[in-house]
Q: What sequence folds into this?
């Protein structure tokens, strides 16, 4: 009885699952080219706060510039802003964030409806406004990871709407400002 190498076995299974998606012919919806988009999000805080401190979820927006390299792969630069996560405790505090990431996207289908996964790496900048008798400001910056998935739905060959869910996990001085987001937007394919 031959012993099967597990890495060869799992590689074979992965290829069997991915090959049908890669074999799809390119449609006008999955052609190579640039795209530009923007949208709104609802950010759900996942902060590491002290006991007794609560944070409110907030709205924000994002924008992206990307390039579809192949029918299944795109790269993009994405900026995201969440305005004033409110922390409630004895010291009033608002935390504003900017996150900029370079993302890779993998599309499972290449026709009018295109589900995808994304992962990215970038930077988070957070600004905290503290009010305790007088106002003080604090700024911190750190690396951030982005992950998520979504669905692009083409209206025409140039215009699409998308929905996306994801998360941002920062490191360094911003490591306690994690959040998940759900949102949607519109994009133009050149």
A:
């Amino acid at each position: 009885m031959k012993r099967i190498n597990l890495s060869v076995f799992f590689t074979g299974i992965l290829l069997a699952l991915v090959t049908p998606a890669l074999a799809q012919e390119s449609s006008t919806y999955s052609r190579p080219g640039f795209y530009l988009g923007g949208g709104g999000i609802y950010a759900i805080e996942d902060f590491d706060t002290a006991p007794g401190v609560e944070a409110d979820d907030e709205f924000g927006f994002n924008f992206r510039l990307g390039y579809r390299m192949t029918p299944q792969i795109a790269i993009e630069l994405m900026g995201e802003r969440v305005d004033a996560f409110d922390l409630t405790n004895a010291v009033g505090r608002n935390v504003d964030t900017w996150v900029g990431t370079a993302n890779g996207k993998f599309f499972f289908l290449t026709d009018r409806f295109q589900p995808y996964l994304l992962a990215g790496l970038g930077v988070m900048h957070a600004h905290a406004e503290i009010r305790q008798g007088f106002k003080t400001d604090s700024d911190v910056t750190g690396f951030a990871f982005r992950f998520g998935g979504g669905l692009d739905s083409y209206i025409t060959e140039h215009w699409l709407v998308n929905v996306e869910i994801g998360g941002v996990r920062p490191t360094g001085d911003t490591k306690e400002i994690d959040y998940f987001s759900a949102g949607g937007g519109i994009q133009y394919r050149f």
Summary: Residues 108 and 115 are 6 Å apart (CA to CA). The chain has one helix and nine strands. The beta strands are 33-45, 54-55, 58-68, 73-88, 92-107, 113-132, 134-154, 159-170, 179-189. The longest strand covers residues 134-154.
